[in-house]
Specification:
Length: 164
Protein backbone atom coordinates (compact mmCIF):
# COMPACT_ATOMS: atom_id res chain seq x y z
CA UNK A 1 0.00 0.00 0.00
CA UNK A 2 1.04 3.59 -0.60
CA UNK A 3 -0.95 4.98 2.36
CA UNK A 4 -3.35 3.69 5.00
CA UNK A 5 -6.19 5.82 6.37
CA UNK A 6 -7.39 5.37 9.93
CA UNK A 7 -9.95 7.24 12.01
CA UNK A 8 -13.33 7.04 13.65
CA UNK A 9 -16.58 6.29 11.81
CA UNK A 10 -17.65 9.34 9.86
CA UNK A 11 -14.14 10.78 9.55
CA UNK A 12 -14.25 10.49 5.75
CA UNK A 13 -11.85 7.58 5.20
CA UNK A 14 -13.79 6.10 2.29
CA UNK A 15 -14.51 9.40 0.52
CA UNK A 16 -10.99 10.72 0.94
CA UNK A 17 -9.44 7.33 0.17
CA UNK A 18 -11.27 7.08 -3.15
CA UNK A 19 -10.27 10.63 -4.15
CA UNK A 20 -6.67 10.13 -3.09
CA UNK A 21 -6.44 6.88 -5.05
CA UNK A 22 -7.91 8.62 -8.12
CA UNK A 23 -5.43 11.46 -7.77
CA UNK A 24 -2.51 9.03 -7.59
CA UNK A 25 -3.87 6.75 -10.32
CA UNK A 26 -3.98 3.70 -8.08
CA UNK A 27 -6.72 1.46 -6.71
CA UNK A 28 -8.63 2.15 -3.50
CA UNK A 29 -9.21 -0.77 -1.13
CA UNK A 30 -11.72 -0.53 1.69
CA UNK A 31 -11.49 -3.09 4.49
CA UNK A 32 -15.22 -2.98 5.16
CA UNK A 33 -15.91 -3.71 1.47
CA UNK A 34 -13.43 -6.59 1.41
CA UNK A 35 -15.17 -8.10 4.45
CA UNK A 36 -18.63 -7.62 2.89
CA UNK A 37 -17.48 -9.30 -0.32
CA UNK A 38 -15.87 -12.22 1.45
CA UNK A 39 -18.78 -12.80 3.83
CA UNK A 40 -21.42 -12.22 1.16
CA UNK A 41 -23.44 -10.04 3.54
CA UNK A 42 -23.53 -6.57 5.04
CA UNK A 43 -21.62 -5.60 8.17
CA UNK A 44 -24.88 -5.19 10.05
CA UNK A 45 -25.81 -8.74 8.99
CA UNK A 46 -22.43 -10.13 10.09
CA UNK A 47 -22.88 -8.50 13.52
CA UNK A 48 -26.44 -9.84 13.76
CA UNK A 49 -25.69 -13.41 12.60
CA UNK A 50 -22.16 -14.00 13.87
CA UNK A 51 -21.42 -11.32 16.46
CA UNK A 52 -18.78 -8.63 16.73
CA UNK A 53 -15.93 -11.06 17.54
CA UNK A 54 -16.48 -12.87 14.22
CA UNK A 55 -16.49 -9.53 12.43
CA UNK A 56 -13.19 -8.57 14.10
CA UNK A 57 -11.60 -11.84 12.97
CA UNK A 58 -12.67 -11.19 9.36
CA UNK A 59 -11.36 -7.65 9.67
CA UNK A 60 -7.98 -8.85 10.91
CA UNK A 61 -7.68 -11.38 8.06
CA UNK A 62 -8.63 -8.72 5.50
CA UNK A 63 -5.99 -6.34 6.90
CA UNK A 64 -3.24 -8.97 6.82
CA UNK A 65 -4.15 -9.97 3.27
CA UNK A 66 -4.27 -6.36 2.03
CA UNK A 67 -1.03 -4.94 3.37
CA UNK A 68 1.07 -6.02 0.38
CA UNK A 69 -1.42 -4.80 -2.26
CA UNK A 70 -0.81 -1.71 -4.34
CA UNK A 71 -2.95 1.37 -3.64
CA UNK A 72 -4.66 3.20 -0.80
CA UNK A 73 -6.25 1.31 2.09
CA UNK A 74 -9.20 2.63 4.09
CA UNK A 75 -9.57 0.80 7.42
CA UNK A 76 -12.67 0.51 9.60
CA UNK A 77 -13.03 2.71 12.67
CA UNK A 78 -12.29 -0.23 14.97
CA UNK A 79 -9.39 -1.72 13.02
CA UNK A 80 -6.48 -0.14 14.97
CA UNK A 81 -8.10 -1.02 18.31
CA UNK A 82 -7.47 -4.78 18.01
CA UNK A 83 -4.02 -5.45 19.45
CA UNK A 84 -2.76 -7.53 16.51
CA UNK A 85 -3.90 -4.87 14.03
CA UNK A 86 -2.46 -2.12 16.22
CA UNK A 87 0.98 -3.73 16.02
CA UNK A 88 0.75 -4.29 12.26
CA UNK A 89 -0.18 -0.65 11.64
CA UNK A 90 2.29 0.80 14.13
CA UNK A 91 5.20 -1.18 12.73
CA UNK A 92 4.40 -0.80 9.04
CA UNK A 93 6.70 1.26 6.83
CA UNK A 94 3.64 2.60 4.97
CA UNK A 95 2.44 6.12 5.94
CA UNK A 96 -0.60 5.82 8.21
CA UNK A 97 -2.81 8.93 8.10
CA UNK A 98 -5.26 9.75 10.89
CA UNK A 99 -8.39 11.56 9.70
CA UNK A 100 -9.79 13.22 12.79
CA UNK A 101 -13.17 14.80 13.40
CA UNK A 102 -14.87 16.66 16.20
CA UNK A 103 -17.65 14.80 18.05
CA UNK A 104 -20.21 17.24 16.64
CA UNK A 105 -19.17 16.42 13.09
CA UNK A 106 -19.49 12.70 13.78
CA UNK A 107 -22.95 13.24 15.20
CA UNK A 108 -24.03 15.25 12.16
CA UNK A 109 -22.66 12.69 9.74
CA UNK A 110 -23.93 9.55 11.47
CA UNK A 111 -27.29 10.62 12.82
CA UNK A 112 -29.33 8.84 10.15
CA UNK A 113 -26.95 5.94 9.59
CA UNK A 114 -28.47 2.47 9.41
CA UNK A 115 -25.44 0.54 8.22
CA UNK A 116 -23.13 0.93 11.19
CA UNK A 117 -24.07 -1.50 13.97
CA UNK A 118 -22.11 0.36 16.65
CA UNK A 119 -23.68 3.70 15.75
CA UNK A 120 -27.11 2.10 16.10
CA UNK A 121 -26.29 0.39 19.39
CA UNK A 122 -24.50 3.23 21.14
CA UNK A 123 -26.40 6.31 20.07
CA UNK A 124 -24.66 9.59 19.54
CA UNK A 125 -23.33 10.23 23.04
CA UNK A 126 -22.09 6.64 23.25
CA UNK A 127 -20.25 7.17 19.99
CA UNK A 128 -18.51 10.22 21.33
CA UNK A 129 -17.43 8.24 24.44
CA UNK A 130 -16.14 5.45 22.23
CA UNK A 131 -14.12 7.90 20.16
CA UNK A 132 -12.58 9.28 23.37
CA UNK A 133 -11.54 5.76 24.37
CA UNK A 134 -10.00 5.10 20.97
CA UNK A 135 -8.21 8.36 20.21
CA UNK A 136 -4.90 7.39 21.85
CA UNK A 137 -4.69 4.28 19.72
CA UNK A 138 -5.46 6.16 16.50
CA UNK A 139 -2.70 8.63 17.37
CA UNK A 140 -0.23 5.90 18.26
CA UNK A 141 -0.50 4.04 14.94
CA UNK A 142 -0.49 7.10 12.71
CA UNK A 143 2.37 9.12 11.25
CA UNK A 144 0.32 12.31 11.05
CA UNK A 145 -3.14 13.61 11.81
CA UNK A 146 -5.44 15.79 9.71
CA UNK A 147 -8.41 17.56 11.32
CA UNK A 148 -11.02 17.26 8.58
CA UNK A 149 -13.90 19.25 10.05
CA UNK A 150 -13.32 22.44 8.09
CA UNK A 151 -11.81 20.89 4.97
CA UNK A 152 -13.46 19.55 1.85
CA UNK A 153 -12.48 15.99 0.91
CA UNK A 154 -10.28 17.37 -1.90
CA UNK A 155 -8.50 19.67 0.55
CA UNK A 156 -7.82 16.65 2.77
CA UNK A 157 -6.34 14.88 -0.26
CA UNK A 158 -4.10 17.92 -0.89
CA UNK A 159 -2.88 17.78 2.71
CA UNK A 160 -2.08 14.09 2.47
CA UNK A 161 -0.19 14.41 -0.82
CA UNK A 162 1.87 17.27 0.64
CA UNK A 163 2.91 15.15 3.60
CA UNK A 164 3.54 11.74 2.01
C1 LIG B 1 -16.59 0.10 13.08
C2 LIG B 1 -16.48 0.95 12.02
C3 LIG B 1 -17.02 0.64 10.68
C4 LIG B 1 -17.14 -0.88 10.47
C5 LIG B 1 -17.89 -1.50 11.61
C6 LIG B 1 -17.23 -1.25 12.97
C7 LIG B 1 -16.02 0.52 14.40
O1 LIG B 1 -16.17 1.20 9.68
O2 LIG B 1 -15.87 -1.46 10.32
O3 LIG B 1 -19.21 -1.00 11.59
O4 LIG B 1 -15.77 -0.34 15.26
O5 LIG B 1 -15.77 1.74 14.56
P1 LIG B 1 -16.19 2.79 9.28
O6 LIG B 1 -15.22 3.48 10.16
O7 LIG B 1 -15.74 2.76 7.85
O8 LIG B 1 -17.58 3.25 9.45
Amino acid sequence: MKAILVGFMGSGKTTVGNLLAQRLGMPYHDLDDIIIQRAGKSIQQIFDDNGEAAFRQLEHEALVDSMADNGILGTGGGTPIQLTNFEILRQSQIPVVLLDVLPQTIMDRLKDDTQRPLARELGLTGLVDLKGQRDDKYEAVSDFRIATDRLTPLEVVDEITKKT
